[in-house]
Each structure stands twice: as structure tokens, then as C-alpha cells.
Design a protein that fits this description.
alpha/beta, homodimer, 8-stranded parallel beta sheet, 5-stranded mixed beta sheet
């Protein structure tokens, strides 16, 4: 497997490009690429090409673009994962897995039972970190489309937003009445799948979800770990819709 | 949530029991239970009860059994995950996730492209470790049935075994012809789902699978991480079968 690098900017006419600083650092210090090496680059918007390294040193990594390469196919659904920010570094795994399985965007939300705040996330520059995790994940899975990791917002503000897609919120089987099995939710072309934190949703949050017209859906009778629930839910939904 | 402990042996008549040594150590040293505490115990075979600690010290942890408790429901399918042993500790995560999502048994297999051997796994007592991981996982997800982690075997020997259930082997989309989408495999009441290692299957292993009558199934076009593929595959299969 060739090493892959994220090349968000390029001059379409010249056929030569320099890797962004962070990608160049990784290429030189970790993967030890050298002039002459064959690699692949992708632009995050669906384009992927072979490329040959022409320069790799402290001044940067240059390359010449070659033939287009077919990336991994994208999902036939515009799927946004709306995920509660979890404790510690667990959100990194959620972002990594969501990017791997094919989501188009990730919206982190801070919930009533979270042990963090928007201010703490901003201080920790967690949004930048999650976007880097998404880049690393799609390098591994072969996608050329980079999922956008939105800036975290309060979940109450999320429910007050308007949306054109269908909204599905995952709830504990015992949480409340009026829930359907996740695999029974009708297929849609655009969907926002909302997955909660370690302690589950606060009743006020479920009320906002109902008022926003979201479908409350449950996923089996076993309690899923909060860091595994988003991947299980996305896989289950896409499989039920025959889109995985 | 009450602390849960694994109590594989008890005297059904007396109503009192001692936790096994490893559970007692965890109860006293980590969770710091004390006489009078209310806990839950499960026998690994489907039974779960409330219990009250009567003794918790260096000689052990004793308890009196109380009312039965309803555990998380079991899957309506007898699902065995046959999983290639991965590098490092990644198999721990595979076992943990499989137990969480409801599999009945886990059969670790050593494959041609593995970086380990049956002898190395035996020296490292990895089988014991995986069974402990399964115990910890079902404590969290509320199951009272402990998935059996079989002793690892060579995957060629696995394919030579006879079985009454249907066998599905997960393959890369590009690996070979004659594959079906995982969500198109007809539902069964007993199934063995076989998931490969980091480097994929060796062609000789796929040949053995074909000769054994296994269904070769693929799961979307994106390359899944080897440690995430078993959870994604189990979730996708169960959701397609409306059993999750």
C-alpha cells in the first residue's frame, strides 16, 4: 500500500505541489519518504492521484502529480453523525470510526451530562485535533472525501437549528415510550444520526428532540459503551438501508 | 448502577456464596465494597440476582443472594464470531466489543498472515486474558450470559471442522468474485461469522472457505480497520436480520 497524503491545495495547471506543513512533517519524520518515492495524494473533496516525491527535506515536501486513482466509493446517503463529546480522549475514537465507516460530517455536541464545556473544548483546540484524526482515518480507509468536523455546539442549540434531513436520536431501550427499532426507520437521502453521552440523555434533551420532530430509535437490549455506540448505530442503520 | 460480579458457582439451596478469588480481589481493591453493600451477581449462564455483601476482607468476599434481576435480553440467533488474532493487544478490543454486542461465542484463529503463533498465544496465556475481557464487558452491557472464548486454533483446522450453522466469511470487496453483500445473506438461526487479519486472507484460506461451503460476503467499499471490522460486521449482519 502506498503512503497517502492530504493535499488540500494545488495548482491544477502546473502539476506540481507542496504538501502542507503538517503532512510534510509526518512524511519526512515518520514515514521517511525520499525523492523518487511513489505516493498517493487526495484533496479531501473526492480527488485522488498518484504522485512522485521530488523533494523531501527541512524546506518541505514537493511532488509531481500523476494519474488519477479511484478512491473508496462514498456512501449513497448524506449522513451526519451528531455525537455527544465523551470523557477523556474517547471522542477521538468516535471521529476515527465515523470517518472510516463513511459519514459525510461530524457535529460534536456538549450535553447536560457531559463533563466538559464548549470553553474547555476551545481551550484544548479539540476541534483541530478531531479534524486531524479524520484525516488520518480516511488515509487508512481509502476515502478521498474528508468528513467535515464542525465546531462543537450545545445540544440544545443543535435541536433549535432547522435542517432539511431526517433526524434520528438513539435512546436507551428503557428510556421512554414512542421509540422504534433503528432498523425500522425508513431510508432517507439525508440523515442526522444523534448519539448520546456516557450517562444518556437528560429528559429535557429528549423533549427538545421530540419538539424538533426527531425519530427516537433504540438499538437492541444490551447497553453499548458510549464510545462504541456511534459506530454500531451507523453500521446498523446503513446495513438496514442496504447502503453500507 | 450497582456493581456486578461474576459468580459462576453457587449452592442453589443455601442462598449464600463466596466470590471467586479474582472477582473478590477486584471487589475489595478496586471497587472497595464493604459489608452491607448491595450488588448484582450473574452466573454466566443467564441468571442474575441482587445480592448483599456480608463479608469483604482478605479472606474473601461473601454475600447473600436476593431477588432475581432481569438481565439484558440475549440475541435471537446463535452467533459465533470467528476472529483472526490481531497484532498486539487489539484482540482484547475485538473480544470486548463482540461480548458487548451479544455474540454467544468467540473462536480466535491464527491465520497465514498473522504475526503470532498458537505456541506464542499459549505462552502468553492469552486465552485466559480474553475470557477475563469478556467477563468485564458483559458486566458493563448487562448480559448474564458469558460468551465462551474458545482456545485459539489454526484457521485451516477451523475450516476442516464440520458445523451445523451457516458460515459467512468477510472478504475485501476487491478480493475475489462470487461475493455477496453482507446484508443480502439470508437470515439463519445459527451462524459463524469469520473475520480476517490486518493483511487480509491468504488465497489458500479463501479456497478452504469455499470448499467448506462458506458464503463469501463483503461490507461496503471502504477499508475497515481490522480491529473495528468484527464489530461493524456483527452490527450490520444483525441489523439486516432485524435481530439487533
Amino acid at each position: 500500500v502506498r503512503a497517502r497524503f492530504y493535499l488540500p491545495f494545488r495548482d491544477p495547471d502546473s502539476g506540481v505541489a507542496m504538501l502542507p506543513d503538517e503532512e510534510a512533517f509526518h512524511a519526512v519524520r515518520v514515514l521517511r519518504v525520499a525523492a523518487g518515492d511513489e505516493v498517493e495524494v487526495f484533496d479531501g473533496l473526492g480527488g485522488m492521484w498518484r504522485a512522485r516525491i521530488t523533494q523531501a527535506d527541512r524546506r518541505g515536501v514537493g511532488l509531481t502529480l500523476g494519474e488519477p486513482v479511484a478512491p473508496a466509493p462514498e456512501l449513497p446517503v448524506d449522513l451526519t453523525l451528531v455525537a455527544a463529546v465523551l470523557k477523556g480522549d474517547k471522542m477521538d475514537d468516535v471521529v476515527r470510526d465515523a470517518a472510516m465507516v463513511g459519514v459525510k460530517a461530524i457535529q460534536p455536541v456538549v450535553t447536560a451530562r457531559a463533563e466538559t464545556s464548549l470553553a474547555a473544548l476551545a481551550r484544548g483546540r479539540r476541534g483541530d485535533r478531531w479534524q486531524r484524526v479524520a484525516v488520518a482515518s480516511i488515509k487508512q480507509c481509502g476515502r478521498a472525501v474528508l468528513p467535515l468536523v464542525h465546531a462543537p455546539i450545545d445540544v440544545a442549540d443543535y435541536w433549535r437549528q432547522t435542517t432539511t434531513g431526517c433526524r434520528i436520536v438513539l435512546v436507551e431501550p428503557s428510556a421512554c415510550g414512542g421509540t422504534v427499532a433503528l432498523y425500522d426507520v425508513p431510508a432517507a437521502t439525508a440523515v442526522e444520526l444523534v448519539v448520546g453521552p456516557e450517562g444518556g440523555w437528560d429528559p429535557s434533551e429528549l423533549q427538545l428532540a421530540r419538539e424538533a420532530g426527531a425519530t427516537l430509535a433504540s438499538l437492541g437490549g444490551r447497553t453499548l459503551r458510549a464510545d462504541a455506540a456511534p459506530l454500531v448505530a451507523v453500521a446498523a442503520l446503513l446495513s438496514a438501508w442496504r447502503m453500507l
